Prior knowledge:
Order of helices and strands: HEEEHEEHEHHEEEEHHHHH
Distance between the termini: 56 Å
Number of domains: 2
CATH class of the largest domain: Alpha Beta
Helix content: 40-55%
Amino acid sequence: xxxxxxxxxxxxxxxxxxxxxNAIIIDADDGHxxxxxxGTNNDIDxxxxxxxxxxxxxxxxxxxxxxxxxxxxxxxxxxxxxxxKGLDMMHLLSxxxxxxxxxxxxxxxxxxxxxxxxxxxxxxxxxxYNTMIExxxxxxxxxxSEYLLARNISRVFGALMFCQREIDRWYELIKDKxxxxxxxxxxxxxxxxVLRYDDLYLLSWDNSRQDMPLFDILNFYERYALExxxxxxxxxxxxxxxxxxxxxxxxxxxxxIPRKVIYMEDEMDNCRETxxxxxxxxxxxxxxxxxxxxxxxxxx
Length: 300
């Protein structure tokens, strides 16, 4: 559907268009509207009806919906510090998870498949860095980024050893369970999707799905680990919606798997990405250490 088709169908009398990513913002005589291209994953209208039936009302006003676009009333955003937006996001996620919780039957094969997928990811990451460091150590002269990685490779391998030990512990904890806790996940946890005006609003529901609550927290952490104080944010979330022991354990494992750094031609970028990966490991260690006993910390 073109902009002309939109005008013909809705008779908006537009006087300005703004195209932003996959959305068209239209300023018209009757108000301001956002036309967002439909995703393939969700019927937004049905999703919003479900969320409102569960008393989760922090949603943009869906004016209309068709096979091409979801049409929302435009919301003016009040400028908010990033730290406050982070707290607003955790507040909304805790409410969303609280109001959409149910328990789903789960069998041993499903749990084993999840365990094997995560174990394979850990092993693949270990092999990736092991091969990389073997290649680096063969060189007469290391680049700055290679030297930075070589100096800190023990922290990378230490994080992976922790992940493997803890995913084994997680599987022992859950393998005999027959139910898991399920919520509606927003599944696109970006600070740009939180707006504050007369109330809070959570936008961009195209990727939402149902799964364990930890995946929204993981999604948020992976995007903003180096920018926000997640020690306080996680405490706030759990003061409103407490994670189960097995959920928190799995969250910490998935948080702790180091990102794979891919070296390119630009050495400055290589140094920057290596430094970010190491900072991520240190920040994650600082976040999860208070949740472990002294003996567990020594073991790492």
